[in-house]
Amino acid sequence: MNGLITRRLFPSEPRSVLRGFGSVHRDIDSLFEDFFGRNPVEATADWAPRLETYVTDEALHVRADLPGVDPKAVDISVDDDVLTIRGERKAEHESAAYREINYGRFERRIRVPQGTEAGKITASYTNGVLDITVPIPKPVSRKVSVSVATPTA
Hints:
The chain is an alpha+beta fold. It has helices spanning about 5-10, 20-35; strands spanning about 50-55, 60-65, 75-80, 80-90, 105-110, 120-125, 130-135.
């Protein structure tokens, strides 16, 4: 083994367990670049933003982490009892040396209460977080009168 590879695979000083896998990933990428040169093709994949949902007495709340996503590129729709969030995060730098941020189109679907009125759903976008409020339909109650049948003799 040449000295460069030996130093990368077996560093002279011990590494901290807390360094995480990111540094291992960078080391492996660097090792392959030393042998094969820079790979011009980068794998692209769709991604799914992280969601948080919670329910209050009046509404279902959905929060989606969308940092770097233009809120104008987000589409929210309701079909039957499914809320769909679609959008795209575009890469700012096409030739990034290292990338852990996912780019491309995304879509998330969340089941909402039956009878949800799409026109009453609201959404806001602050600091890269999309907040959606889905009002919970109130049960329709009505009084039913009992009719008394007259016995026939």
